[in-house]
Amino acid sequence: MMMLGILAVLEPIERPLTAILEWLHGSLGLSWAWSIVALTILVRMALVPLTVRQIHSMQSMQAHMPEMKAIQQRYKNDRQKKNEELMKFYRENKINPASSCLPILFQIPIFISLFFVLKGFEKDVLPDYPGSDLHWLGLVPNITDPANSHWSGYLLLALYAISQTASTLLMSQTMDKTQRTLMLILPIAFLFVVLNFPSGLVIYWVTTNLWTVGQGLVTRGLRPKKEPPPKRTSRTPPKEREEEPDDAQPLEAPRQQAPAQPRRVKRKKKRKAKR
What we know:
It is a single chain. By secondary structure, this protein is an all-alpha fold. It has one domain. Helix 8 runs parallel beside helix 11. The longest helix is centred in the first third of the chain and has 25 residues. The protein is elongated, with a radius of gyration of 36 Å.
């Protein structure tokens, strides 16, 4: 019953995905595997507005990270007060932590729907396209077979692990050390689950990871760099002294020295000339 409920909920997503795959294959002449790659790119393009919000939110959180750490340190023994102060800080600085999760949340139902599309692919779609090629780059023998059914599938899984780790490194700059380490370990631990996924689903995952890597590199390139302080040389004028506050104690005036006495010069007496 639960499985039927999930299928009923995902059916509005499965139908458009199947229609797009058939259009990419039938109208553009792409193989089924490359159709999945193109489908992934179309999905990521549709999520660009959410991705932009995610990037802005992450950059804002990174800019305010010292203040956030100071709040966490100040209320480390009072979790409720710490959460209240953090939420207040988010509101005052217009930070939405949930924005960083929106693209992932929207991709999860698409990912699950594609899983069910590929599961019934040979029965529901392929009969209308006899002689279709299910291979990819000569490596994946069949996009509907599990990734661990052929040696080339393990190569695809290795590509998944590398791309997932790279995307995590680029998109976890605002996380603390513990969370970042956990996010780096998850792709390796998740390999045991991905083993039984259809190869076409792993292709979708690898493509979206590569998109995320490219997106992170572009974001880093567009981020304004902090200008280093100018190097001080012998010609650099000294910094002006800051003005003293009104309540500052005045410096003692230098003591006036007594005027120096004029120096007396002794004149030599002229000797009288001898007669």
